[in-house]
């Protein structure tokens, strides 16, 4: 993660998912606060940035919106390599798009570290009457298959890029907040290793955890 001090954070966030689920629409809704019903499919990947301040930390999110077509899938590793967070998007009206999430998860697990933040996002809640993927089933999948193998809990969101009511803003704000918390935690550990060591030694000397 880039940034020369604890008050600066630059993070790469990759957005993955099947074509047509609304990855680009989510990114544009967040960055530009707009929605276009006639958006074209992404070729390769597109790149956007967002600057914000979280807990007095200047954050710059680099959003990599990847193509969902099968012919571009082999290129995806070029874009998610070195990412600090991944947003996996599915369409709540398409079980096939959610099945694709499993494939992306396996690929990320094989090619990234356990510190990668993963967000599972169901789009198109404005079409709730056509829902085929329940929120409960997604949360069950995350609890059963992802949280045991990830260093950080996997977040689950449902949003509508078309009729946004603030959920997309909340999604990225929570992501940025978690990244900042990670950075401060790492910065503190690196800055105060002697204090950690002294604390651990004092616990050992006190015998507070012994069986006597």
From TrEMBL:
Question: One short Pfam family name for this protein?
Answer: Ras
**Cited InterPro entries:** P-loop_NTPase (IPR027417), Small_GTP-bd (IPR005225), Small_GTPase (IPR001806)
Q: Which PROSITE patterns match?
A: ARF, RAB, RAS
GO MF annotation terms: GTP binding; GTPase activity
Q: Which of UniProt's keywords are assigned here? A: Hydrolase, Nucleotide-binding
* Name this polypeptide is given: p-loop containing nucleoside triphosphate hydrolase protein
What is the source species? Absidia repens
Q: Lineage of the source organism?
A: Eukaryota, Fungi, Fungi incertae sedis, Mucoromycota, Mucoromycotina
């Amino acid at each position: 993660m880039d940034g020369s001090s604890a008050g600066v954070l630059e993070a790469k966030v990759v957005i993955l998912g099947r074509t047509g689920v609304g990855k680009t629409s989510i990114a544009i809704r967040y960055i530009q606060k707009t929605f276009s019903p006639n958006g074209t499919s992404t070729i390769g990947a597109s790149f956007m940035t967002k600057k914000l301040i979280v807990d007095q930390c200047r954050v710059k999110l680099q959003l990599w919106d990847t193509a969902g077509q099968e012919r571009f899938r082999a290129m995806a590793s070029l874009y998610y390599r070195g990412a600090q967070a991944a947003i996996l998007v599915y369409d709540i009206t398409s079980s096939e798009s959610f099945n694709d999430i499993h494939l992306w998860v396996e690929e990320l697990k094989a090619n990234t570290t356990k510190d990668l933040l993963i967000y599972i996002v169901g789009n198109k809640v404005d079409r709730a009457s056509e829902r085929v993927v329940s929120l409960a089933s997604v949360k069950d999948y995350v609890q059963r298959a992802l949280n045991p193998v990830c260093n950080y809990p996997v977040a689950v969101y449902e949003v509508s890029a078309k009729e946004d009511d603030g959920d997309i803003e909340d999604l990225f704000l929570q992501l940025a907040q978690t990244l900042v918390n990670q950075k401060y935690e790492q910065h503190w550990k690196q800055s105060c290793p002697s204090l950690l060591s002294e604390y651990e030694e004092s616990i050992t000397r006190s015998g507070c955890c012994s069986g006597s």
